[in-house]
Design goal:
This protein is about 25% helix and about 25% strand. By secondary structure, the chain is α+β, with helices and mostly antiparallel strands. The protein folds into two domains: about 5-250, q2cbj1_9rhob like domain (Jelly Rolls, Sandwich); about 305-545, Jelly Rolls (Sandwich), CATH 2.60.120. The strands form four sheets. Strands 1, 2, 3, 4, 5, 6, 7, 8, 9, 10 and 11 form an eleven-stranded antiparallel beta sheet that branches. The longest helix has 17 residues, at about 65-80. It starts with a helix and ends with a strand.
Length: about 550
């Protein structure tokens, strides 16, 4: 939901002071020249902006130059050389090499870049933002967002970054319906986590956005919905301070507590920077609606589980496949037709509630228990998955492995939903450095692994949060995609990816009425890819994990 501040930004906040007067001088018309009173007005607008200091400058550069720069970028991207596909749990877009390395074959882009790196422009940024003592260290690269591309919620707070800038080179007829807006998040004063989008800035051709980088500067790029007019091109980067300001660790308070480390999301273009330091935050609790165990009975699964999977020969074949090949194993038509129909109808009317914060995850889960014992098909199926009888069935699949405690949750992923990787030891050991540079991993939340709450049947071993994070598990993920016909289109998103530090092990598309089994070692992480606006229907799953 956009606030009044949002509409101001879409029109160009402070329209009068932002219409800058260009003069010809030593910079040959590259940029406008401001008198002190104009800079003061822009600084006030910058500081007063919500949810954190920012401003959108209307056409600060010479129109002819900007047109030529756009042409240079289109030609450069068309060659393919010097651009990298960035696609992981947090983002999907193309990024150029560092603009400091632009050659003579892109004269207009080189001319603009020279100015962006100049002390004169740095002084102008200091005047507008009020952020003083900026160093001569600047990161800058170009980005191209095509239809379906996006960048999820993050804060840019890394090393000595002080001011972020974005120069939009979108087609001049870009409209709100084309997507790709810069979304700014308010921060919950209690949890210190981003809570909602409170300002939204259109990527207007020729405009430039500046914002102060702080632990609260959470922002995202909304999905590009239509690129038929051209790609959403931009030049962006950061001005650095001479020293990193002392800042307290960012903490997301939760009932579970615990600490995870994360990396900044955007990869530094080649030619800049070193390994990123780690930050810490407390992970919010993940809701696991655990229900009482059904009694063990040879008849408990009849009428629900496809009889094929109750046969010993099937169990032996499944076990052999898991032991010999590893990875993910998808069992199709897992429930009987009648049982799946009952569950499918109930899922469409279940009392879903949203789970966040957006810097970690976004999906729906079930709130309070939906009714009495055995009165709702969704609740009944969750009870079955938590039952001793079902655990015995899975144990037959994974012999000689013995399964212990079980945790489970029912989730709904709709357009715009996702989960992001997080794991303390994985990141703390530096594995994330390898993966993020390879485009596999970024700062994140919980990708279906992470911290879980475990049910503890009488006589079972106890387990705390740390133990839950480091144990071996069997993940059983039941997919309920209601009206899907044929193969899942991966451009819809919603794919669950399993990976280690430097290798993607498996990507699993949701298939209707199927159970996906994955034997998970502690180092195997996962995330659910951002669900695209193209996705025709919600993705429902019962995400179950059984302690080994």
């Amino acid at each position: 939901m956009e606030s009044k501040q949002t509409s101001n930004q879409d029109r160009g906040q402070g329209a009068s002071p932002n219409k800058l007067k260009r003069t010809r001088g030593s910079l040959n018309g590259v940029v406008s020249t401001l008198v002190p009173s104009e800079i003061h007005g822009l600084r006030c607008a910058f500081r007063d902006a919500l949810p954190f200091p920012h401003i959108q400058l209307n056409h600060p550069f010479d129109p002819e130059l900007i047109s030529s720069v756009r042409d240079d970028l289109i030609a450069w991207e068309g060659k393919g050389c010097g651009w990298v596909e960035r696609n992981n749990d947090l983002y999907s877009f193309k990024q150029s090499d560092a603009l400091a390395n632009v050659g003579e074959d892109s004269p207009s882009l080189r001319r603009l870049t020279t100015y962006l790196y100049s002390s004169e422009f740095r002084s102008l940024v200091e005047g507008i933002t009020g952020v003083q003592d900026l160093a001569d260290t600047i990161d800058a690269s170009a980005a191209s967002y095509r239809s379906g591309d996006y960048l999820l919620c993050h804060d840019d707070d890394l090393l000595t970054r002080r001011v972020a800038f974005i120069l939009y080179l979108t087609p001049e007829n870009w409209e709100a319906s084309d997507g790709g807006k810069l979304e700014l998040f308010s921060v919950d004063p209690t949890t210190h986590a981003p809570s909602r989008i409170s300002a939204s800035i259109s990527p207007r051709y020729g405009s430039m956005v500046l914002f102060e980088v702080t632990p609260a500067s959470f922002h995202a790029v909304g999905e590009v919905l239509d690129d038929s007019k051209g790609h959403r091109l931009s030049i962006s980067g950061w001005f650095h301070g001479k020293n990193r300001l002392p800042r307290p660790p960012l903490e997301f308070h939760s009932s579970n507590g615990g600490v995870v480390a994360f990396l900044p999301p955007l990869p530094t273009p080649s030619g800049f920077g070193k390994a990123h330091p780690l930050y810490t935050l407390a992970t919010p609790s993940l809701p696991f609606p655990l229900l009482p165990l059904l009694p063990s009975s040879s008849h408990a699964l009849e009428g629900w589980v496809n009889p094929l999977y109750l046969k010993k020969a099937t169990a032996a074949a499944v076990g052999k496949r898991l032991r010999e090949e590893g990875g993910a194993l998808l069992l199709p038509s897992f429930l009987t037709h009648d049982a799946f129909s009952l569950v499918a109808r109930a899922l469409g009317t279940a009392p879903w509630r949203h789970v966040g914060p957006p810097v970690l995850q976004s999906y729906r889960t079930l709130g309070a228990v939906m009714g009495g014992y055995n009165t709702c098909p969704v609740e009944t199926l969750l009870n079955i998955f938590c039952s001793e009888s079902f655990r015995e069935l899975l144990s037959n699949f994974v012999k000689p492995v013995v399964l212990g405690d079980v945790a489970g949750k029912v989730r709904a992923f709709t357009q715009g939903d996702y989960t992001i990787i997080t794991d303390p030891e994985y990141l703390a050991k530096g594995a994330a450095k390898k993966a993020s540079r390879a485009g596999l991993l970024a700062k994140g939340g919980s990708g279906g692994g992470g911290k879980v709450s475990w049910s503890k049947p009488e006589g079972s071993l106890g387990g705390g949060e740390d133990e839950g994070r480091t144990m071996r598990t069997l993940e059983a993920n039941f997919y309920a995609v209601l009206s899907q016909a044929g193969e899942w289109d991966e451009t819809w998103g919603g794919v669950t990816t399993y990976l280690t530090a430097d290798t993607v092990r498996e990507s699993v598309s949701p298939q209707t009425n199927s159970l996906c089994l994955v034997l998970r070692e502690p180092e195997l992480l996962s995330f659910v890819k951002h669900v695209s606006s193209r996705c025709p229907e919600p993705i429902y799953d019962f995400n179950m994990q059984y302690r080994i």
